[in-house]
User: Fold this.
Amino acid sequence: MNKFEVTLRTATPADEPFLFDLRRVTMEEHVERAGEPTDEHAHWERLRYRYNDAYVVCCGSERLGLFKFFRDPDEWTIVQIQILPEHQGRGIAAHLLGHFLREADDARVPVKLSVLKGNRAIGLYQRFGFQVIDATDTSFQMRRG
Assistant:
């Protein structure tokens, strides 16, 4: 996929059914393995967390995933990156991450995130310079910069 085809747009309430299905298909396995709740209510709670910071990843009018992040003055946070399985492996998440990190570097701020243990995204984050700074029973807190 050409990186210039991928755009972000602010998530709207009309996107919620898509984002709910996206969460289930991309996260259910990881959440279940971590022993976290996987019921509908738990997915909706996580989906709605910082919803005003949610952006739908698009290629033209096609929705490919979600990129949720926020920028505090001294540190930026990636909340979630989720790409539909049929679009994974095409470099979409790496493109989004790389662009976001270049902006953070320009702003001279570190970036943090949390990732469930066993999630293959850990390797992607490590390739971009994130390091584990803390851990719980189920997740790693990672930071770059």
In short: The chain has a mean pLDDT of 92. Residues 78 and 113 are 5 Å apart (CA to CA).
